Backbone:
């Protein structure tokens, strides 16, 4: 159910409707819009008696929402959600007209590694650095991530280069720490239906980047996001990272058709991850171009300065020089669509080298 308020409805009127919804044992979700506020209602098992709400001051109409997902739906909020991430280098926005970039290694391996890559990411105009301190791995014998010391390394990358940090939480315990150290909490593909983790992320005060599950349908993907909005976190960025198919020429099949499909149904921004989506370095650039052309609100790309020595996902990590080219080409495609890619950062020329930075820390 969606309650649409009049354009000039007062805050008191909105509050009174929310109080009334609560008194019915339901949960109100006020959604401020450019023109008017709407109030989503969740928690109802059956039909709600509209009369009590429809006659309240400031209410225009009550609209039943028939889709299983409500708060993520365009029925409830027509305009695009723009998720804005403040970083010391400036804000990065995803959604609406904005296209944002996230780049960095699969895993944080050492301070030296993270600083060497961070320096190159910062000079490429990307402002968000990705790197896992907690790695969900298929094999228990593979590198599992550095844990909290890895988050400390990320904090140093942030302090040194001004990059915002995107890093993955794999359970409630790591989410507590990721929320403290990071700027964006990543929920990985394997955890897309870890409902207790989704609820915890919904109570977090940081934006969440939610990756599509390996075999998730569009409805399942949106329902996973709904868990977080239902808990009160509306700052959710979706991420297509490839799904499992019969194709064996790539690690996964990057489903770019999901981008316009999400855009039609949901107001949330959607990124594309061509690194996990293809699993092959040489396919990252062409799929990045295609992702932006199809309407993605940003890219998440794995970058490593020494991919052959990477502890995870080296074969799909591009080199820092490749990132510069990718940014240039993607910027040109974005311009055709009238969408600016993150503006060039100023004053990075005077940054110390990674070796100097490592010594200084
Ligand atoms: C990652 O981003 O490094 C990762 C583990 O991604 P996914 O959850 O999409 O496999
Ligand atoms: Mn990876």
Residues:
């Amino acid at each position: 159910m969606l309650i649409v308020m009049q354009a000039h409805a007062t805050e008191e009127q909105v509050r009174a409707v929310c109080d009334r919804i609560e008194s019915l044992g339901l949960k109100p979700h006020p959604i401020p819009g450019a023109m008017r506020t709407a109030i989503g209602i969740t928690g109802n098992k059956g039909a709600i008696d509209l009369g009590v709400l429809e006659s309240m001051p400031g209410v225009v109409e009550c609209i039943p929402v028939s889709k299983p997902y409500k708060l993520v739906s365009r029925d409830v909020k027509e305009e695009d959600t723009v998720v804005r991430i403040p970083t010391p280098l400036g804000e990065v926005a995803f959604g609406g007209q904005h296209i944002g970039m996230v780049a960095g290694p699969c895993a944080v391996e050492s301070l030296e590694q993270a600083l060497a890559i961070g320096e190159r990411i910062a000079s490429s105009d990307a402002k968000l650095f990705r790197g896992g301190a907690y790695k969900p791995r298929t094999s228990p014998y593979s590198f599992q991530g550095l844990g909290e010391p890895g988050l400390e390394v990320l904090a140093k990358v942030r302090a040194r280069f001004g990059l915002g940090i995107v890093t993955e939480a794999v359970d409630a315990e790591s989410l507590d720490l990721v929320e403290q150290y990071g700027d964006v909490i990543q929920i990985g593909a394997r955890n897309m239906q870890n409902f207790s983790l989704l609820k915890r992320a919904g109570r977090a005060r940081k934006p969440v980047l939610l990756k599509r599950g390996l075999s998730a349908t569009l409805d399942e993907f949106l329902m996973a996001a709904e868990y977080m909005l239902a808990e009160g976190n509306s700052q959710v960025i979706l991420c297509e990272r490839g799904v499992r198919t019969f194709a064996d020429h790539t690690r996964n099949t990057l489903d770019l058709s999901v981008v316009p499909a999400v855009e039609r149904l949901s107001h949330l921004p959607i990124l594309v991850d061509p690194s996990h989506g293809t699993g092959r370095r040489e396919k990252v650039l062409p799929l990045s171009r295609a992702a932006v052309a199809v309407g993605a609100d940003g890219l998440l790309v794995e970058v490593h300065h020494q991919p052959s020595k990477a502890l995870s996902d080296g074969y799909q990590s591009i080199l820092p020089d490749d990132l510069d080219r990718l940014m240039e080409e993607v910027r040109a495609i974005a311009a055709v669509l009238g969408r600016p890619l993150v503006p060039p950062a100023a004053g990075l020329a005077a940054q110390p080298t990674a070796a100097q930075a490592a010594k200084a820390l």
Residues 106, 276, 302, 312-313 surround manganese (II) ion (ligand 2) (CB under 6 Å).
